[in-house]
């Protein structure tokens, strides 16, 4: 079985190719990709400036994605064909010291779906079943694909310890800033200050609920 995939052969060398579909092993699932975002990491990989992990070419990028399960490995019991899932692209080993200490994001043997392993800029993607999270069929898969960036932003909000009644300042109102702003308001931030040079993004900040919007160029 083959599929269409965007293959990054070298910096700025992206081709649409037919490549083999990886059959799922016992603890893996095969997903038909329905939605995949384009992250800043993808742009860095495309330009050859690297990402958070050491990547090698050729590479199928794409790590912010959701889709429908086509096939499950024999050992997978909690998911089934037809389930809608979103994917955590960071596959930790569970055995190194950071993993055993509960800091899996510092795994010394991390595999990154879409950064060090084939990702979702393709019709199908094979991932460990433990990396997939079942979502309700009523939720749009376009929305479900946002799980990864929202998760990153939620971690930032937790680290910043945003509490009810506090003041939150966001410098730059790109996609991450927009997500963090909404999470900050949901966390009870009483005053939301956004610093952003682009007029359209400042307007979006006001629409989301920023109390103060600053143009740093004036």
Written description of the protein model:
By secondary structure, the protein is of the alpha+beta class. It folds into 2 domains: 144 residues, Quinone Oxidoreductase, Chain A, domain 1, CATH 3.90.180.10; 65 residues, NAD(P)-binding Rossmann-like Domain (Rossmann fold, 3-Layer(aba) Sandwich), CATH 3.40.50.720. 24% of the residues lie in helices and 30% in strands. The chain contains 6 helices and 12 strands. The chain has a 5-stranded antiparallel sheet. A hairpin with a 2-residue loop joins strand 1 and strand 2. Helix 4 crosses helix 5. The radius of gyration is 19 Å and the shape is globular. The chain starts with a strand and ends with a strand. 28% of the residues are buried. The mean pLDDT is 94.
**Largest sheet entry:** 5 strands, antiparallel
Globular, elongated, flat, extended or rod-shaped: what is the shape? globular
Number of domains: 2
The CATH topology of the largest domain: Quinone Oxidoreductase, Chain A, domain 1
Task: Write the CATH homologous superfamily of the largest domain.
Answer: Medium-chain alcohol dehydrogenases, catalytic domain
End-to-end C-alpha gap? 57 Å
Discrete helix count: 6
Strand percentage lies at 25-35%
Helix content: 10-25%
Uncertain runs: none
Judged by helices, strands and strand pairing, the structural class is: alpha+beta
The helix-strand sequence is: EEEHEEEHEEEHHEHEHE
Rg, please?
A: 19 Å
Q: CATH first level of the largest domain: which class?
A: Alpha Beta
Widest sheet: strand order? Answer: 8-3-4-5-9
CATH architecture of the largest domain: Alpha-Beta Complex
Number of strands: 12
Mean pLDDT, to the nearest integer, reads 94
């Amino acid at each position: 079985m083959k599929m269409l995939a965007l293959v990054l052969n070298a910096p700025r060398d992206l081709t649409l190719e037919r490549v083999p579909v990886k059959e799922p092993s016992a603890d893996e699932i095969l997903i038909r990709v329905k939605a995949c975002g384009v992250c800043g990491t993808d742009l860095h990989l495309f330009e050859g400036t690297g990402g958070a992990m050491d990547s090698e070419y050729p590479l199928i990028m794409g790590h912010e994605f959701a889709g429908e399960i086509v096939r499950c490995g024999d050992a997978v019991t909690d998911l089934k064909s037809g389930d809608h899932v979103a994917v955590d692209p960071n596959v930790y080993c569970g055995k190194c010291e950071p993993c055993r200490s509960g800091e899996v994001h510092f795994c010394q043997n991390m595999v990154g779906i879409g950064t060090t392993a084939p990702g979702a800029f393709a019709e199908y993607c094979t991932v460990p079943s433990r990396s997939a999270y079942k979502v309700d069929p009523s939720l749009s898969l376009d929305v479900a694909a946002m799980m990864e960036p929202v998760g990153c932003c939620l971690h930032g909000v937790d680290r910043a310890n945003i509490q009810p009644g506090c003041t939150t300042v966001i410098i730059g109102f790109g996609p991450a800033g927009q997500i963090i702003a909404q999470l900050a308001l949901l966390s009870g931030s009483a005053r939301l200050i956004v610093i952003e040079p682009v007029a359209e993004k400042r307007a979006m900040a006001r629409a989301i609920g920023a109390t103060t919007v600053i143009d740093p160029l004036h």
